[in-house]
Amino acid sequence: MNIIVNVDKNWAIGKGGALLFPIDADLKNFKRLTLNKIVVMGRKTLESLPDGKSLKDRRNIVLSKTLPETEGLHVCRSTEELQQLLASQDFADMTSDDVFIIGGAAVYAQLLPLCTTAYITKVEATAQNADAFFPNLDKMPEWRITETSELFQDKEKYRFVTYKRQPQD
Ligand SMILES: NC(=O)c1ccc[n+]([C@@H]2O[C@H](COP(=O)([O-])OP(=O)(O)OC[C@H]3O[C@@H](n4cnc5c(N)ncnc54)[C@H](OP(=O)(O)O)[C@@H]3O)[C@@H](O)[C@H]2O)c1
Question: For the whole model, what pTM was predicted?
Answer without folding.
Answer: 0.98
